[in-house]
TrEMBL record:
SUPFAM superfamilies, per the entry: MFS general substrate transporter
Spans traversing the lipid bilayer: 66-91, 97-121, 133-152, 158-180, 200-220, 226-249, 278-303, 315-335, 342-362, 368-388, 424-446, 452-474
Organism of this sequence: Sphingomonas vulcanisoli
InterPro entries, per the entry: MFS_2, MFS_trans_sf
Pfam families: MFS_2 (PF13347)
Domain of life: Bacteria
Keywords, alphabetical: Membrane, Transmembrane, Transmembrane helix
Transmembrane listed as a keyword: yes
Similarity section: Belongs to the sodium:galactoside symporter (TC 2.A.2) family.
Protein's name according to its UniProt entry: GPH family glycoside/pentoside/hexuronide:cation symporter
Tagged with keyword Transmembrane: yes
Length: 487
């Protein structure tokens, strides 16, 4: 019965993925056709060319220092999403569904915190500004939580949940004010793209450390509980250093002061839902981040269960992928100026999905060349979609400021963080239940049904990325209409 259920689930997911590919390509082509129909032979105006906002330039050291904080955030995110489900299931001997539920519960707590921290930072006035006190507190709490969860004295679910909640608190304290800062640092959409290109480069560095160094540390220590304890120490130290650097460097950044205004929950929801570009961006990021979380939670299983390369092959894939993503920051800003952020965003998503679906063709003994081709191709287009998504975030925040005259970037950063955290809660939980339903091995990677891993890596993750193209088409029209409006 379990095998029949697993086979049915696998076929259903595969059919849905194929349908989404066809539908997304048709919708994307229609969106480009509408653009040409409306505008004739004239090129689509980009956000930058339509913007009434003047350009200004920020010092490169400030951009680097601010972006460096993403090394810490990515170690927190990827260290959890890549290693924790594997650690809970294979080392602590938990059922996959229970492990996924614990991760979901911690992320749910994190998501609830997001709007609270966002509005709190909006209202804060201190000698360090509105955002920077949270950066300092967040770095300390994240480091403490990472140490605790990997050095847990027991497999008690409540103890693990408490450690994860500590990480969640620290991550919210750091990341939400952090993401609100670019909209305050400059009024130029072009400079925001430049700032975010540094952030995405350091996202690549942090992701490489989390997905390359940390698994190798675990392997070097024998892969047992003590080895993962060392992983916790390394992750905590690296995260703390990165976040403290950002706290120190951003002391020179332009900042805004709190007006003391208080917003009700209803007013916050109204501000978010009435901002069309931001709402479409959130919908797209929801799909993409659930897909990313599902990939992160299952990719180690894929390399050990399907390909057979283990941590070493995973580290090589991650290293080349992140190097390609970082290198691509040299060209994506040019395409952004030439074709517009949203158009480039949708194209990068579509092509990234193609590389994602190609994992369905991988099998035991997959060549190193095949893995590296996927790493480089996926890394380039992941860099593009990440940069465009991140650079559009402060642009959509600026829409609210121009319309309302209020500085409430923290509200929007909190909403964005809520979606991010909810996504990273749903992704691992979905993978855990897919594994459970399709009969994947409970305690270890040997003997499990590989179709469950294929479903998570090669269907669920890229399929969700493809789905995100739909809100991007709506965002394109909404953002263009705003910049052309008399407001």
């Amino acid at each position: 019965m379990a095998n029949r259920g697993g086979l049915f689930a696998y076929r259903a997911i595969r059919a849905a993925g194929t349908a989404m590919i066809r539908h997304a390509i048709v919708i994307t082509l229609r969106g480009w056709h509408v653009r040409k129909t409306i505008q004739g032979a004239q090129p689509m105006a980009t956000v930058e060319s339509m913007s009434p906002i003047p350009t200004d330039r920020l010092p490169t050291p400030l951009k680097i220092g601010w972006g460096f904080g993403s090394v810490g955030t990515q170690i927190v995110l990827n260290g959890q999403s890549l290693l924790l489900l594997f650690f809970f299931v294979t080392v602590l001997k938990m059922e996959p569904a229970l492990a996924g539920t614990i991760l979901f519960g911690a992320k749910l707590f994190d998501a609830v915190l997001a709007p609270i921290v966002g509005t709190w930072s909006d209202r804060t006035n201190s000698r360090w500004g509105r955002r920077r006190p949270f950066l300092l507190a967040g770095g300390i709490l994240c480091a403490a939580g990472l140490f605790c969860v990997f050095n847990t004295p027991t497999a008690n679910p409540l103890v693990l949940l408490a450690s994860l909640m500590l990480i969640s608190l620290g991550y919210s304290f750091f990341n939400i004010p952090y993401m609100a800062m670019p909209a305050e640092m400059t009024d130029s959409p072009i400079e925001r793209t430049s700032i975010m290109s540094w952030r995405i480069a350091f996202v690549g560095v942090g992701t490489a450390l989390a997905t390359t160094l940390l698994p190798l540390v675990a392997k070097a220590g024998g892969g047992g509980k003590a080895a993962y304890g060392t992983v916790g120490v390394v992750a905590a130290v690296l995260t703390l250093i990165a976040m403290l650097i950002t706290f120190a460097v951003t002391g020179r950044a332009r900042a805004t002061s709190s007006s003391g205004e208080r917003f009700s929950f209803t007013a916050m929801i109204g501000a978010i839902t009435s901002n069309g570009p931001f709402a479409f961006l959130l919908a797209a990021k929801l799909c993409q981040l659930i897909g990313l979380a599902a990939m992160s939670a299952s990719i180690l299983f894929f390399f050990k269960q399907v390909i057979g390369g283990g941590e070493s092959m995973l580290a090589l894939w991650s290293l080349f992928g992140n190097a390609a993503s970082i290198a691509s920051m040299l060209v994506w800003p040019y395409f952004s100026k030439r074709y517009g952020k949203v158009a480039v965003y949708a194209a990068a998503v579509l092509l990234y999905s193609v590389f994602g679906f190609s994992w369905l063709l991988a099998g035991p003994g997959e060549s190193t060349l095949g893995v590296l081709i996927r790493a480089v191709g996926g890394g380039v287009f992941a860099g593009g979609l990440s940069l465009m998504g991140q650079s559009l975030l402060p642009d959509t925040m600026a829409v609210d400021f121009v319309r309302s005259g209020m500085r409430r970037e923290g509200v929007f950063a909190g909403a964005y963080s809520f979606v991010e955290k909810a996504s990273f809660a749903l992704g691992p939980m979905a993978v855990g239940f897919i594994f459970q339903i399709m009969g994947f091995a409970t305690h270890g990677v040997a003997g499990g049904d590989p179709r469950a891993v294929y479903a998570a890596v090669g269907l669920l993750s890229p399929g969700l990325y493809l789905l995100s193209i739909l809100p991007l088409l709506g965002m394109r029209r909404s953002l263009a209409a705003y910049y052309r409006s008399p407001e």
